[in-house]
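The following record pairs a protein chain with its ligand, 1HE.
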Amino acid sequence: MAAEKLPTKLSVTLPESLRAERQGAVAILRLARPHKRNALNDETVAGIETFFSELPDGIGAVLLAGEGEHFSAGLDLGELAELDITQGIAHSRFWHRAFEKIQFGKVPTVAVLHGAVVGGGLELAAAAHVRVAERSAYYALPEGSRGIFVGGGGSVRLPRLIGVARMMDMMLTGRTYSAEEGQTMGLSTYLVELGMGFAKGLELATRIAANAPLTNFAVMQALPRIAESDPASGYTMESLVAAIAQADGEAKTRLKAFLEKRAPKVTRS
Ligand code: 1HE
């Protein structure tokens, strides 16, 4: 392997519960608190915010994964016990801020899911742009049984993925969904065998990083907002974004390459 392709450390300072490295144009962030099943304490959530805020130039995509047997057991329940109402609001807003840095950050994020993807772990996964699930993944929102509510953006993001009715069911009854069910209902868009998630995620992130940056920006920032707007505003915004994207030098280069038969055809992979 060429030296420049070896994973190299990112210079960002993170808590021990997170591990970052770089592989080419992909920044890799691992939840690294497996002894606590990657439960998300304040330090970890702050580290996620720092990582996504300080991505260096040259990074075109992020790969997010969890160490150990589970992606994440969600909120660190030990930390919530002492908060009053005002502090509870601030805590939830802090999660919102951190996860917004993922969803509306600099570059797209691919999340690799395995084992428990529950509570705040599912909220974290929902902030990513592409989700790859291994067959061990399972999904739950145990907030109902814990006497709490989602606070990391789950009530906004999850109904858009699976619908309000399914989310209600998960929260009211403690229902869990398997990796296969999650794939069918849209929690993941890739389902892979055990141990294959990281490689698949890296393959996808590498491909995403090779897209024109303006296209990735438009897909991340404009598409979800267009989808939420009224149709007339949506069509207008779409035309503007389309015009901006096609006018970019990168688009011109790529279209020319296709017309001169130097670019790959679209084939079924
Ligand atoms: C934790 C947490 C946690 C594990 N906070 N410490 N999330 C939940 O309700 C899920 C709670 N966790 C579990 O149901 C299980 O731990 C798992 C199914 C994920 C994994 O089971 P297992 O048998 O592999 O591990 P374990 O023995 O239960 O846990 C290992 C250790 O991790 C243990 O600590 P230890 O010191 O006794 O070794 C657990 O206490 C600890 N641990 N999960 C704190 N979540 C912004 S709002 C979001 C709201 C939510 O996310 S609510 C959902 C919370």
